[in-house]
Amino acid sequence: MSSNPQLPAVTDSGLPDSTGLRLLAVHAHPDDEASKGAATMAAYVHAGARVMVATATDGAMGDLNNPYYGEPVRVERDITAVRFHEMAEAARILNIEHRWLGFRDSGFPSGDPMDLLAPGSFASIPLEDATAPLMRVIREFKPHVLVTYDEIGGYPHPDHLRTHAISIEAYEKSGDPDAYPGTGEPWEISKLYYDRAFNPEKIRAIHNAMLESEMDSPYADRLDWYDRVAAGEEDPDAWRLTHHEVTTQIKTDAFLEYRDAALRAHRSQVDTHGGFFFTPNELLRKHWPWEDYVLIDSKVETSKPEDDLFAGLRDTPLD
User: How far, in Å, CA of 205 to CA of 224, rounded?
Assistant: First the structure.
């Protein structure tokens, strides 16, 4: 699959032949695709599917988050150019197609009172204006499956919340010939999923496995918070924990190094000695060799649990 000699050659994706199938993942910023579902995308490309990521914003409001980045002046001078280059490299590593939706990063408001969103930023403009570029991508690419964030965006960044909103709007209306005129011929997407990268069950399993291996685990505080919220304790951040049950697990153990390489491609944003790399891949392969998803809607017959995002589509005539 890969021409990169540092990545392992994979002879079997573990998935059925996916030739003719198309998967679209919608993300807020360059680097989100690497931390949420990258191994799944690499696996499906290997199985023959076409996989595309649509990135909503330019990432211009990002900070330099990697203390080991060797060219801080370059980031300070033109972070947008840096992040465009990083996104192109991540897409090359995963062998996926990529589209920019063309919006400016909204940033993460802070302060008391909260900062206002910059005028014209992705989260500040009307929903229809924000959805139109995604609708064009959908009607051109014609995905069978769309993957996006849940209703709190995975975490409540304004751009993640807006990414959820435009994804739902586009999923519901892409097949309507009267909706979004001028964005192409209608196309009905067959299945909608939420990414479940922060699955509490997964985090607990990995935490326990690390302790059993006499390793330090970084997840104790997060699990304590999960438990307090589950017990009904008052917590101002309780609303951030959604309760979608995982319906679909994609076995991705052969593609963890592809995920890691895609993360490292975003080297202005990802600390190469940080939290994304705390858990050894061999431990993941043994204790949680999947990436997790929640099936939200399906226009084809399928049954849960699933081990394939295209379940129900493989016996259906494809366009």
Answer: 14
Rounded-to-integer distance, Cα 253 and Cα 142, Å = 28
Here the contacts of 175-179 (C-beta below 8 Å, separation 24 or greater) are 179/135
What is the identity of the amino acid at 234? E
The pTM of this model reads 0.93
| Kind of pairing between the strands at 290-298 and 191-195 | antiparallel
Q: Which residue in 148, 57, 66 sits closest to 102, CA to CA?
A: 57
Alpha carbon 97 to its chain centroid, in Å, reads 14
Maximum C-alpha span of the chain: 60
* DSSP structure string for 153-192: -SS--HHHHHHHHHHHHHHHHTT-TTSSTTS-S-----EE
List, for residues 12-49, the tens digit of each pLDDT value. 899 999 999 999 999 999 999 999 999 999 999 999 99
Q: How far apart are CA 142 and CA 22, in angstroms?
A: 7
Q: Which two tokens stand for residue 249?
A: 């697990």
Specify the DSSP class assigned to residue 200. H
Nearby residues of 78 by Cβ (< 8 Å), 6 or more positions away: none
Q: Which two tokens stand for residue 144?
A: 């069978």
Of 2.60.120.200, 2.30.30.100, 3.40.50.10320, 3.40.190.10, which CATH number belongs to 22-199+243-298? 3.40.50.10320
Give residue-wise pLDDT tens across range 227-250. Answer: 998 888 888 878 777 789 999 999
Q: Residues 96, 53: contact at Cβ < 8 Å?
A: yes
Q: Residue 278: CB partners within 8 Å, gap ≥ 6? A: 218
Q: In whole numbers, what is the pLDDT of the chain averaged over residues?
A: 92
List of residues 6+ apart from 189 with CB closer than 8 A: 24, 138, 143, 144, 145, 146, 171, 174, 175, 299
